[in-house]
Amino acid sequence: MTLIFNGEQLAKQKALKLKTKVAAYYAKGIYPKVAAIFFKEDAASALYTSLKKQTAENLGIAYQAKAFSFASQVEEIQEYLESLNTDSSITGIIIQKPWTKKWLEVVPNGDFAKWWSSLVSHIATEKSHGVNKDVDGLAPATLDAIKAGTWMEDGMVLPATARAVLSILKDYRANVDPEFSYLTENVLIIGQSDLLGKPLYWHIKNLMKKGITVPSNFGEACQVSVAAAQNSVKKCEVKLVGKKGFEEIIEQKKSLSEFRVIVSATGQKNLLNGDLISSNSVLIDVGEPQGDIDLPSCLNKADFITPVPNGVGPMTVISLMANALDLLKPVL
Ligand SMILES: NC(=O)c1ccc[n+]([C@@H]2O[C@H](COP(=O)([O-])OP(=O)(O)OC[C@H]3O[C@@H](n4cnc5c(N)ncnc54)[C@H](OP(=O)(O)O)[C@@H]3O)[C@@H](O)[C@H]2O)c1
């Protein structure tokens, strides 16, 4: 029988733990405060920002948001980011990423990647400013550290959606199948953006390759059985694909049955169905607002599915809050 994950339920449990952490910071005179910026023309960004603000404030994390326009001068936004970097009352910064395809034409010269990089690279990281305020884990320095496998010792955090996915897999292990570890299974990640696919792939690959020792106090999502992976006799791999890579697998193998864990983040409705998956698969659907997975056809075949809505979404928001608190660990 397939277990359908309940994102809101797990997010509520996590929220209780985070409230305790916030209280511990308060007791030490440390007050977490996140500053977000978003682009007002993008209605989805405004909505996500208000949802994050509500969640943060419920936990006791102060959250301020400032709207810019796509017409705003890049220099003006960079200047504002620098003022947040040097403001010691601000402990974390978020730039709400607008949806690439929709705004491609609007940003200066139609070069979204360049425009985004010129902003996100101005968020303070340990290397650039001696203090890390990159709550989203999307600054180039953070992504470099994730790729190199040094992010934990560098005091950095994984992008929230990647952390959410790892948290869900860990919860499945803890509550359903103690034998399960994504380090001892073949893992397929579909969708190769900075928000999820790439950092998740780098992280899992590094763990599988090097068997990194995970400090028990840093990011509970990462406490997986590395020892189990090292002792495993199974030869496992993690694979990251975009559209072309996905089509090639389907063309050559006709199915995805060699992968027990599949994380899909494409926004393509019903990209995956019951005919493509193996009978004990663990399926994580990151697609929004519509899921990538055709849930009815996978029922009673997969072991585990995260639905849309009420799957990865609520866990992403709570993971972002966990990130905001993890950034403060070096101060404690
Ligand atoms: N639940 C959450 O918390 C959360 C958080 C973030 C994003 N999302 C959702 O995740 C989805 C992806 O977001 P994103 O920002 O990563 O988008 P993105 O930057 O546009 O990336 C989409 C990725 O999907 C791949 N892709 C597109 N069509 C495909 C197909 N037919 N077969 C296989 N791969 C295909 C693309 O491949 P190429 O690289 O080859 O172009 C690309 O790598 C969206 O639905 C978004 O709303 C959800």
3D structure, described in words:
There is one protein chain. With 332 residues, this protein is an alpha/beta fold. It has 2 domains: 28-129, Rossmann fold (3-Layer(aba) Sandwich); 161-314, Rossmann fold (3-Layer(aba) Sandwich), CATH 3.40.50.720. The chain is 43% helix and 11% strand. It has 13 helices and 9 strands. It has a 6-stranded parallel sheet with strand order 1-9-8-7-5-6. Helix 12 links the parallel strand 8 and strand 9 (304-305). The termini are far apart. The model is unreliable at 212-224 (pLDDT under 50). It binds NADP nicotinamide-adenine-dinucleotide phosphate. The site of NADP nicotinamide-adenine-dinucleotide phosphate (NAP) has 23 residues, from helix 11 and helix 13.
Number of helices: 13
Strand arrangement within the widest β-sheet reads 1-9-8-7-5-6
Q: What is the mean pLDDT?
A: 91
Tell me the radius of gyration. Answer: 20 Å
List keywords for this structure.
Rossmann fold; 332 residues; six-stranded parallel sheet; 2 domains; binds NADP nicotinamide-adenine-dinucleotide phosphate; alpha/beta
